[in-house]
Amino acid sequence: MKQYALTGCRTSEFRNARGKGIEVYEVVNNQWQHLYTMSVPFDNPSWLTFDDKRQQLYVIYGDGEKVSQFKFNKQNGQLSYINSVTTGPRHPNKDLQPERRNNPVCSCLTPDAQHLLIANHEGGNIAILNFDVDNNVVSTDKFIFIPGKQDPSYQDKSLSRPHQTLFDNSGKFMLVPNQGRKAGNGIDMVQVYKIVGDDYQLVHIAITTEGCWSRHICLHPSNKFIYCVNELDCTVTVFSFNDETGELKQLQEIKTLDINSKYDVSEIQLHQNGKFLYVSNRIHNSISLFYVQTDGTLKLQKWFESGGKTPRFTTLSPDNKYFYIANEDSDNIVQLKVNPDNGYLEPTGTIIANKSPTFICFI
Questions:
Q1: Between the N and C ends of the chain, which has fewer C-beta atoms within 10 Å?
Q2: Coil, strand, or helix at residue 257?
Q3: CB-side exposure of 49: number of CA atoms within 13 Å?
Q4: pTM given for the model
Q5: Strands ordered across the beta sheet of 214-219
Q6: Local structure of residue 99 (DSSP, 8 states)
Q7: How confident is the model over 170-210, as pLDDT tens digits?
């Protein structure tokens, strides 16, 4: 069966970007062969979600307010545009940047693939989109609104900024890391929602360090531990996770590098063996490797150069043998081989030219 890699990017002047659209590659013997560039109707196709059930790709646009739907042909890698709908209304808080609108930053399908969830970072909500009888995604009026601090002295409507939606391995809970940015008087936290039918019931909130900007999370294969990367603090917070109740308990907070300067972390990945955890450090242009201990806590082992500038996004190949780094400001994607014994990242010499990359999706 053929394998493909699709990349999202930034395209707007506001982001000083150079991307042109979705880049489509066929992956043959771990080498990427560029097929074509797919133009898209809006700026910044920055996050991609593939729907294996419907053979469709969903594209959200950073700093925008739209999601587009494409049909994907696995025989030849061709994308065919279907439609676009809004991700929801703009938040009324006057301190928000109007040019960023809703700023959808992450999307995922529910475990049963019946709904598409979108984290509207600037909108302060999770949008829950449905599909019609023809499998077209449709606009929604169903949202999970995420408030900020309840402070009587704050005169505007508060909000916290969801940066991701992720389901636990049982499919019973949705986890949402939120950034407590000053505009909106937000709260740094990880929320846990229990799925009851088509409803999402908030069952637990784990508060993270104020001002840390909790960004992304990943789950241990055992479903017993959750790792949250904090953008401004340059830390990882480790939680134990009770997959019966949804409760989180903080076990550890650890820096991603043993240096004192700011280095702005971004992405977090856990190897399928549950032993190696990787975090990208954008300003430092590096990848930190942690070893996961038997109690779920982390030990910083080593860091590796990213091979470019601003490693915004990283991912492991589907077989977890290779590690890919999307260096947004040096216009390249770097392939590294994962040493299965110690988790070290070894250069393969493969560097893929790609303008302003922000996401990699394997199909």
A1: N
A2: coil
A3: 27
A4: 0.97
A5: 214-219, 225-230, 235-241, 248-255
A6: G
A7: 999 999 999 999 999 999 999 999 999 989 999 999 999 99
What distance in Å separates the CA atoms of residue 230 and residue 266, rounded to the nearest whole number? 8
Q: Three-class SS of residue 302?
A: strand
**Residue 70: which pLDDT band, with cuts at 50, 70 and 90?**
very high
Place of tokens 């700093």: 63
Phi and psi torsions of 98, nearest 5°: -65, -30
- Tokens representing 52 are 């294996």
Between CA 57 and CA 4 the distance in angstroms is 13
pLDDT score, position 323: 99
**Nearest alpha-carbon partner for 218 in 179, 173, 162, 269:** 269
Whole-number Å distance between alpha carbons of 217 and 206: 13
Q: How far is 259 from 276, CA to CA, in rounded Å?
A: 21
Q: Which two tokens stand for residue 294?
A: 């038997």
Cα–Cα dist 198/115, whole Å: 9
DSSP letter at 208 equals -
Structure-token match 């449709």, residue found: 138
Sign of CA dihedral 129, 132, 135, 139: negative
Contacts of 152 (CB under 8 A, 6+ apart): none
Residue 141's Cβ-count burial label (10 Å; 0-12, 13-18, 19+) is: exposed
**Confidence at residue 363, expressed as pLDDT on a 0 to 100 scale:** 98
Reply yes or no on whether the pLDDT at 261 is more than 90: no
- In angstroms, the CA 115 to CA 137 distance is 9
Instruction: Please state, in angstroms and rounded to a whole number, the distance separating the CA atoms of residues 27 and 318.
Output: 12
Residue 267 near residue 314 (C-beta atoms within 8 A):
yes
Q: Which residue has the tokens 């302003």?
A: 356
Joined together, the tokens standing for residue 228 give 């949250």
